[in-house]
């Protein structure tokens, strides 16, 4: 279904409700530059670390698109789990998993309260940016503590830049990208207003330092397009 969530006046701040869940896959593909390519890149990195009996957790698993793609490419038995705090997202995810016959554990949970532990890989695609800045470092520390030895944390985030002129230029480039994907100026403005004080990005350096302070020994970037970046942190 095509994303038309913001083609009418907004009545509330952005939330992952049924209206968003029903068009979420289209929203991601059209709103996040190179989303499909980044998803495949992350899967390739995970496959390089693949091993019998390993466990992966997807934070903010939404409609399970990432987990289903990964499941279809695995050559060994890997335990795949996803958590999300949106029942609407989980309902669609479970329908898709059933349709594809995929054995993926899905759980309704708040990641801030979730009991991490026993995972070899944790993935978070454009999810941390919705966690309040004061709570983010503590969450990343819990992620670090919950990973098995030599575990990896792969996460994608929208970022800001300390150079305000560059930041504005990249925002304009991104808006032109969204127009090219078929979004109107009205829809773009409506979504920006809905996300204000809901999506709060860090700089690239702030994300890296947050991971290092949590204990990760190596933090690198896997991909960047303007103000969208994918990181990998190794325990």
Automatic annotation (TrEMBL):
Gene3D superfamilies found in the cross-reference section: Vaccinia Virus protein VP39 (3.40.50.150)
Leading EC class: transferase
Ranges of residues in domain Methyltransferase: 57-151
Reaction catalyzed: prephenate + S-adenosyl-L-methionine = carboxy-S-adenosyl-L-methionine + 3-phenylpyruvate + H2O
EC number: 2.1.3.-
Binding site for S-adenosyl-L-methionine: 35, 60-62, 84-85, 125, 192
UniProt keywords, alphabetically: S-adenosyl-L-methionine, Transferase
InterPro entries the record matches: CmoA (IPR005271), Methyltransf_25 (IPR041698), SAM-dependent_MTases_sf (IPR029063)
Cross-referenced HAMAP family: Cx_SAM_synthase (MF_01589)
Role summary: Catalyzes the conversion of S-adenosyl-L-methionine (SAM) to carboxy-S-adenosyl-L-methionine (Cx-SAM).
UniProt record similarity statement: Belongs to the class I-like SAM-binding methyltransferase superfamily. Cx-SAM synthase family.
Name this protein carries in UniProt: Carboxy-S-adenosyl-L-methionine synthase
Gene designation per UniProt: cmoA
């Amino acid at each position: 279904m095509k994303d038309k969530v913001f083609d009418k006046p907004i009545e509330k701040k952005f939330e992952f409700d049924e209206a968003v869940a029903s068009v979420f896959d289209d929203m991601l593909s059209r709103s996040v530059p190179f989303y499909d390519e980044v998803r495949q890149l992350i899967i390739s990195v995970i496959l390089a670390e693949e091993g019998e009996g390993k466990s992966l957790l997807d934070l903010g698993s939404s409609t399970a698109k990432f987990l289903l793609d990964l499941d279809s490419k695995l050559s060994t038995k890997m335990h795949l789990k996803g958590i999300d705090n949106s029942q609407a997202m989980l309902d669609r995810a479970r329908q898709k998993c059933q349709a594809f016959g995929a054995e993926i554990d899905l759980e309704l949970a708040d990641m801030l309260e979730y009991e991490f532990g026993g995972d070899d890989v944790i993935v978070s695609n454009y999810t941390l940016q919705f966690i309040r800045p004061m709570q983010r470092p503590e969450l990343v520390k819990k992620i670090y503590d919950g990973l098995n030895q030599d575990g990896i944390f792969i996460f994608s985030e929208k970022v800001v830049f300390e150079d305000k002129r560059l930041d504005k230029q990249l925002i304009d480039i991104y808006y032109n990208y969204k127009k090219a994907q078929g979004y109107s100026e009205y829809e773009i403005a409506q979504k920006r207003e809905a996300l204000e004080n809901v999506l709060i990005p860090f700089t690239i350096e702030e994300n890296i330092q947050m991971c290092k302070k949590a204990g990760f020994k190596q933090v690198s970037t896997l991909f960047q397009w303007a103000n969208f970046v994918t990181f990998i942190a190794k325990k």
